[in-house]
Amino acid sequence: MKTMQSGGMGVRFRCIPLALVLIKASVSVAATAPASEEAKIRHRHDKSFHMIGSRALLNAGEGRSDSFGGIYIGDESGIINTPEHVGPNHPSNGVAIGTRAKIGTNAAVAIGRDAVVTGDEAIALGREAKAESDLSVALGAGSRTVASNSVALGPDSFADRANTVSVGSAKLQRQITNVAPGTADTDAVNLGQLKAAGLDTANALRDVVFYDSGKNHSTVTLGGVGAVSQVSLTNVAAGRIGANSTDAVNGSQLFSLTGRVEKLEKRSPRRDESPHDERPVVTPDKPIAKGLDGGRMRVTNVVDGVQNTDAANVGQLNAAVEDNLRKAKSYTDEQVGKLQSKIDTDRKDAFGGTASAIAIANLPQAYPGESMISVAGGTFEGQSAAAIGVSTSTSKWSVKGSFAANSRGSYGGGVGAGYRF
């Protein structure tokens, strides 16, 4: 038995002097050759090949492809036999496991029947999964990525935008369930949070006052434009009374104004003459107008009311209305800002979880008869993660455990075992 040491994390490859002859398959392990020589596997008509070692050579079709650090297991698995994927620019350090699993780029991983990877450092896991862009992950049977740094999660999912995670496609949409409430600005929010913010199940905002249509935001109709029934505006603060005031007045101010008018009417002499009579109507102090009839004439030059029993002018009423609208807008802006902050927090936590998943997925597995401690890293959308794994493998059992921590302060781990028969 000869042992060859490779660089990196101290992984050793053992060449065992053993020749195997299978139907429609050939395996060549360079057990008797010096450690500096390459292990060679050539196939033209055989369907299965396995290439494991620091340098494996595959004669694919009519072309030549040298793969460094690759692992290829399964019928017709290996390197894509096209001009751009063979020759000097050969893929290296890749893994292809499964019938017709193929890789055409560096550090690629294709696991599953007909799984194909053509993006650098991309991963395709599942039957007919395809990772066609750099640093992308296609996870699930029939999943596909065509944009860099994208993730297609689930069977038949399709990711066509960079730096995104897709859980379905245009024809196959899925729900993401059991989502915790978002807390950071970049966190995802759940439906419960949206309802609390005023969004009902029909995707329409409820319990929210909108400006009327138009870009100048000059009017607001309570109950909505075209509303038939009237609504009440409650808890209105007393409006500022002044010549330039545009505040809204509340019921208390109007009640006070009504009382003062009633007292004024009681103190004023009444006449039965025509409302167009030009003779003055007087109070005990001095005349206030000519021909006052309370219906067709205005009372002008009314000073700002000061006491509770003073009359308010139009300026004071407008000031009261404006103040209340300003307070309502400020409150709405504050609540929207809080919601946005929670959404951003949840988004960052989700990116951290994705980085942890990428790190765990890149932990290598021990070969049969050996044990391995391995580490891996992952990054996604500005968040990073580190993972550590321990694995061992016998002729029948394979056991692996992993643990990961990310830059968001989240931790996770998992244990798996497999029995071969």
TrEMBL record:
Keyword flag Protein transport: yes
Compartments where located: Cell outer membrane; Cell surface
Trimeric autotransporter adhesin YadA-like C-terminal membrane anchor domain segment(s): 364-421
Region annotation (Disordered) ranges: 260-293
Composition-biased stretches (Basic and acidic residues): 260-280
Sequence ranges assigned to domain Trimeric autotransporter adhesin YadA-like head in this UniProt record: 118-143, 149-169
Alphabetical list of InterPro entries matching this protein: Adhesin_Head_dom, Coiled_stalk_dom, Pilin-like, Serralysin-like_metalloprot_C, YadA_C
Record's keyword terms, sorted: Cell outer membrane, Membrane, Protein transport, Signal, Transmembrane, Transmembrane beta strand, Transport
Principal place of residence: membrane
Family as reported in the entry's similarity comment: Belongs to the autotransporter-2 (AT-2) (TC 1.B.40) family.
Protein name: Head domain of trimeric autotransporter adhesin
Native source species: Trinickia caryophylli
